[in-house]
Structure formats: C-alpha cells, structure tokens
TrEMBL record:
N-terminal signal peptide: none
Family label: Belongs to the TRIM/RBCC family.
Extent of Low complexity compositional bias: 55-70
A molecular-function term among this protein's GO annotations: zinc ion binding
UniProt domain COS: residue ranges: 336-393
Domain Fibronectin type-III per the UniProt entry, residue ranges: 399-492
Domain annotation B box-type: ranges: 187-229
InterPro entries (alphabetical): B30.2/SPRY (IPR001870), B30.2/SPRY_sf (IPR043136), Bbox_C (IPR003649), ConA-like_dom_sf (IPR013320), COS_domain (IPR017903), E3_ligase_FN3/SPRY (IPR050617), FN3_dom (IPR003961), FN3_sf (IPR036116)
Chief localisation class: cytoplasm
Protein name per UniProt: TRI36 ligase
Assigned GO CC terms: acrosomal vesicle; microtubule
Region (Disordered) location: 51-72
Encoding gene per record: Trim36
C-alpha cells in the first residue's frame, strides 16, 4: 500500500494550493475545488466591473493566481458579462492545471461532475492527519459524545445510543448504510448534471465522461461512441491496475531516476551560478565601455567649454579697453598729448590701425565663440534599440515573421506569424503590442504568451493604429524580436448582418449561399430573353439586395470582398423609407422606356437618374473603384478611378449623417459623402452581369485543444 502521507501532492488544488474541497472534474480532466472555480469566474466579472484584475485578485484571498493567469483573466473578463446571481455566467475557465482556456459549455459549472473518488481519498488523508481528533455525535445533548458510526443515507454521525434511537429495528432507517465516523458523505447514485433526475449508466468515449441515456438519445452525445458503465469501469480499472503494477515493478528504475534528478538539481545550481557570473561579466564589460565613452564625452565638453570661455573673456577685455580713460582708448588719448611730430608719427601709425579694427568690430559685433553645445549631443537611439533587444544567444532559434497577409483587423485582431525556415523550433511565443500615440514618447508594450503561431486580440480601440511584434522561446533561450508590423483598427464598431433573402430578393438573377454571406449575379437566360427585342439604347438589369439588419443610430463599420471578375457592383446604404422606391426603380430591360420608339432622349434620362437616386451607392467593377461625380470630386476622370482594394469597407455615421468608403486592408478612406439618415439605414448592394460579393467574416477566438491518453 502507498503511504497516505506520500500522496499529499496529488490532493492539492492547483488554484488554492490547499486540500481539495468538493473537487469538480474539468473537461481537460484536471480537478479544481468547486469554490475555487466559482471564485475564479467571479474574478473575471469583478475585474471587468472594477476595471482591473489586481483588486479582484486581492479580494479573493483563497485563490493564489499567477501573473500569467491574471493576464488570461483580464482577456476573458472584458467579454462584458456581469454577475447577477450566485452562479457565474462565464463559460470560459482558465484551468490552473494546464494553463488553457477551457470551454465549460452552456451549463457552465452546473455541467461538471463532482469527483467523489478524489473526495473520499482526501477525507482518508484528513482522518489520518487528525487521528487524535474525534468526530462528535450530531444528535447528543451537550456535552456531545464521540461518534462511533456515520450514516451515509442521513449524512450524519451518531454515537451508539443515538444511532439506535434514530435507526430502530423494523423500520426503513434500519436498512441505511453506515460506515465508520466520517465527514465525507457522498451520494449512493451518481446523477447526470444535464438531466438531474437521471442516473448515469453509460460512458462517452469521445468526451471521456459518464452520461445518461437521455444524453445519448437526444443530447449533445447523440452521435458519440458510448459504452456501458460496467464495461468502462472494467476497462479503465484494468488499464489503471496494469499501469500501477508496471510502475511498482520499475521501482529500482524510478529510484535511479530520482538519484539522477538529484544530481541534475545540483548541476543546475552550479551551472546557473556560472551563467550568472558570465552574464555579470558581460554587463560589466558593457558598463566599462560606457564609462569610458562617458569620460571621453565629458572631457571633450569640458575642453570645448574652457576654450570658448578664453575667447569670450579675451573679447570682453578687448571691448573693455574701448571705454574712455581705459585700455586702448586711454592709451590713444595719452599719445595725442605728444607734441613732437616725429615721435607722434612713429607711434600713431600702428595705433591708428588698432583703432580702426576696434571701430569695425563695433559696427558688426559677433561673439568670439558659440554658447550652445548642440554638436556635443550624444545620439543613443540605435544603441538604445540594440540594448533593448539584448538577450541570450538564440542558439539557432529563428526570428519569427508576422504574416501581414494572414493577419487582419476587424471586430478583433488576428495576428499570425511563421518561421522563415518553415520549421517551428520554438516552444512558446511572446506577442507584444501597443497603441501608437503621438502624445506618448515611450509606449508600454502589452505582453501575451502564446503556444501557437497565431493569436486573436480583443478590445482594441476603434480608429487606432497598433504596433505588433513577436519573439520565440525555447526553454530559457529566446530569439530577437520580429520586425514591427503596424495595423489599424476599423473607424467604428463592426456591424454584423446577413444578406436578406426576402425583401426585394430576385432569386432568378441572384444566388445566395446557405449561410447568406455571399451573393452572386449570373448573366443567364432571363437577361438574354429580356434583351432579345432590344437593338439600341438598352440598359441591362441591376439586381439589388440589402442587409437583414438596419441601423437607427450610432457609428458602424462593415467590410466585404468583391470578386475580381465582377463586371459591375454598386455598394452603399439605403433608408427604410426608400427601400420600395429602390426596388421599383430597378431598370428592367423589358421596360418600354428602352424601346426604339419610346421617344426619350437617353442622355437626359441618364442625368435624371443620377440626380434622383433614393440611396447612396458607389460603383465598382473591372477591378476599379469609381469615385462619384460631385462638385468636390477631381475634374480629371482618370483621377476618379482607383484600383479596387481586395477588401472594401463602409462606415456609416448616423449621428453626423455621413457615409465613408474604405480600403479595409489599411483602413484608408477613399471617399466620403453626406447621407440622409432620417430612417433606418440598411447596407445595400447592386450587381449586374457576372459579379459576386462576399461579406467579411468576423474574427473568432480559437481555443487550444486538450488531449489525454486516458
């Protein structure tokens, strides 16, 4: 038998670091206390309501959460859910055992099984730890007596006398199951958390959990492979027994490994000290180089200062001599007193030259030296960047590169990267990002640890630019940072809708996919039959389709792709009070307006049509974006034709009455105009000939899969 003291490590909750209390089995097969699960999920909601995770962590002293776990709490807590009951509403749970975000499903905590087996083992351990502490009778009058047995049906402990009183012979209670004194009462029958009135009698091999017959008939396990509980019990018990027997038979090998690990521990200690000394020596060398550079720079500044002071001091003394009865002027005044012409001429010639120079210097005064030291400013920008990337030698670990084609900004940011050699040598990655702000000189990078080569980031500010960079880690070795990539968020919150297959939808000309996210226009027989009798002046059909959701207020953004082969597509918005006019104004080739004898002037009709649009649309086609003709538009027709972006976006601001058309790849506005937002506004599309439009799919978070060999 394994000593009960030796398994204490297996009985500790990874969240509270204490013995398990009512442990729950997570979908990843790790166990966490019921109370810890609730407190961690409440921490998500509290951190969202309070605006910070630190306060929520301090308010729950039972939970000891690491900084990496708190980072995941911050990400999930910004989902917007708030506590309004005793049960958390969040379905995502950061497992403290495997450090992954686990989906608890629609029922959340209520869908988790309680691990009664683990609970019983914990109770045995507690009893062994407190053997000297007796369990008292629950029914004795004070003072209570020590209990001798516990009833599993009544969930209570009794002394001999009280047990006879409450379980008399000849009654139903006399048939109750009783055991030795305990505080751990478990139900005799394990009930299904999905169907509370049904007992579990099968085992789902896909989900690795017990289920009832209702789960198999019509629940989420309907198409899963299941087996009987007895078969699962026998199979798993045999596997577990064999594995335990194998481990016990390898006891000598395990002890040898323990001895080897002890040596490795000591070796690790020695090597770490040696690495510290080498790192310290390297930084001391850098510090010595910097100290030498500092001394040389200060010496050069001091030398330049002294030289400039000497020049300025000499210039000041020279100008001091120009004062009356002082210096050069005083000497000249004394020379003027000489009466002997020969002696005067001999002295005055040289003196006159000096006086002339002093006179010229007064006319154009210029300091003898500069007072600024701009030439002595040390530029450390490159060195600072290099020191910022200072890390341990990568040992062949490649620098990851952010894939700008696969990365995109929409309702969330999806950042993808890859290794240049297409070999993923890194164990983990660290993705950093920060918002570009001109007012802030030094930005604070936000850090996320990732175990894959992509990451979805939520809650970024609208109409903002963000810089991203990533580096790989393999053990304690890290690669240098990748090149920074700058992406811009949409100018407004993303508006979600589908194509409306009812209002004005022409199923003969347009083809919707089952999800209603793509529409295609086919130039088929209906168009040919309608155009058969037309000879000249014929317009082809514009087939309109709108979104199934309207906008009443606020600012919203949506994006879509137009196929490169599309001949003509119009995109924009339409008001609810003009939708009927929109569809009735569709230019049908069968209209008498286009017959040869209609008597209309096609040119004038074009002008009338352009000036009476009941909607705001721009024209796309033949891989081009056409800026509408307006007074503010460029007069040159060629300058109004732009290349069609791979992804186009529309931003509608109902409050300001404006609609803008964007290159959704770089979030650059191509064209903006005013629009009447008096009614409910709907996204509008028109297709002619062969064309197709695909709505941009929202970025959804993808969570890691968890695997188990059991």
């Amino acid at each position: 038998k394994v000593p009960i003291k030796g398994i204490e490590r297996e009985l500790i909750c990874p969240a509270c670091k204490e013995l398990f209390t009512h442990p729950l089995i997570l979908p990843c097969q790790h166990n966490v206390c019921h109370k810890c699960v609730k407190e961690i999920l409440f921490a998500f909601e509290d951190s969202f309501a309070d605006g910070g995770s630190e306060s929520s962590n301090q308010s729950s002293p039972r939970i000891k959460i690491s900084s990496s776990s708190m980072d995941r709490i911050d990400r999930i807590s910004r989902s917007g859910r708030k506590r309004n009951s005793l049960t958390p509403r969040s379905s995502l749970f950061p497992c403290p055992g495997c450090q992954r975000d686990i989906d608890l499903g629609e029922r959340g905590i209520n869908g988790l099984f309680r691990n009664f087996t683990l609970e019983t083992i914990v109770e045995r351990y507690r009893q062994a730890a407190r053997a000297a502490i007796a369990i008292m009778c629950d029914f004795c009058k004070p003072p209570p007596q020590e209990s001798t047995k516990s009833c599993m049906d009544c969930s209570a402990s009794y002394c001999n006398e009280c047990f006879k009183i409450h379980h008399p012979w000849g009654t139903v209670k006399a048939q109750h199951e009783y055991v030795g004194p305990t505080t751990n009462f478990r139900p005799k029958i394990l009930m299904c958390p999905e169907h509370e009135m049904e007992r579990v009698n099968m085992y789902c091999e896909i989900c690795r959990r017990p289920v009832c017959h209702l789960c198999k008939l019509g629940g989420c396990h309907a198409n899963h492979r299941v087996t009987t509980m007895s078969t699962a019990y026998k199979t798993l018990k045999e596997k577990l027994s064999k594995d335990i027997e194998y481990l016990i038979s390898k006891e000598s090998q395990v002890k040898a490994h323990i001895t080897q690990l002890d040596l490795l521990l000591k070796e690790t200690e020695c090597n770490s000290e040696r690495a510290k000394e080498e790192a310290s020596h390297s930084f001391e060398k850098l510090s010595h180089v910097l100290e030498e550079k500092k001394t040389a720079a200060l010496r050069a500044i001091e030398t330049s200062k002294n030289l400039r002071l000497e020049k300025l001091q000499a210039q000041a003394e020279e100008y001091q001599g120009l004062l009356e009865n002082n210096g050069l002027v005083g000497y000249a005044q004394e020379v003027l007193k000489e009466t002997d012409p020969s002696c005067f001429v001999q002295t005055a010639k040289q003196l006159h030259v000096r006086i002339q120079k002093a006179t010229e210097s007064l006319k154009s005064f210029r300091p003898a030296a500069e007072t600024t030291f701009e030439d002595f400013v040390v530029d450390i920008a490159k060195q600072e960047e290099i020191l910022g990337d200072l890390s341990f030698h990568s040992n062949g670990l490649e620098i990851p590169e952010i894939n700008e084609e696969q990365s995109r900004m929409y309702n969330k940011a999806l950042i993808s990267w890859e290794s240049p050699g297409k070999t993923d040598l890194a164990d983990t990655y660290v993705l950093e990002y920060h918002k570009l702000n001109r007012e802030e000189e030094s930005a604070t990078w936000q850090e996320i640890e990732v175990h894959r080569q992509s990451k979805v980031i939520s809650d970024l500010d609208d109409d903002s630019s963000y810089a991203f960079r990533v580096r790989g880690y393999k053990g304690s070795i890290c690669s240098p940072w990748s090149r920074e990539v700058i992406l811009r968020t949409p100018p407004a919150p993303v508006f979600s809708f589908l194509f409306d297959d009812k209002c004005g939808y022409n199923s003969e000309h347009l083809l919707l996919n089952p999800r209603r996210t793509s529409v295609e226009s086919r130039a088929g027989f209906p168009l040919l039959l309608g155009s058969e009798r037309m000879q000249v002046g014929c317009y082809t059909t514009l087939d309109y389709i709108i979104g199934d959701t309207g906008i009443a207020k606020g600012k919203h953004f949506w994006a879509f792709h137009v196929e490169a082969y599309s001949y003509l597509v119009k995109v924009g918005v339409v008001s609810s009070n003009k939708i009927q006019k929109l569809f009735h104004n569709t230019h049908d080739v069968t209209s008498p307006r286009y017959e040869q004898d209609s008597g209309h002037d096609s040119g004038s009709e074009d002008a009338f049509f352009d000036s009476s649009q009941p909607f705001t649309l721009v024209t796309l086609g033949m891989k081009k974006f056409f800026i509408p003709t307006t007074p503010a538009a460029p007069k040159d027709p060629a300058s109004r034709i732009l290349p069609l972006p791979s992804c186009l976006g529309i931003c509608l601001d109902c409050d300001k009455g404006k609609v803008g058309f964007y290159d959704a790849g770089c979030m650059k506005c191509l064209y903006e105009c005013e629009v009447d937002c008096s009614g409910i506004m709907y996204p509008a599309f028109a297709l002619m000939g062969g064309a197709a439009v695909h709505l941009e799919e929202a970025v959804t978070a993808k969570y890691g899969e968890y695997h188990d060999d059991i």
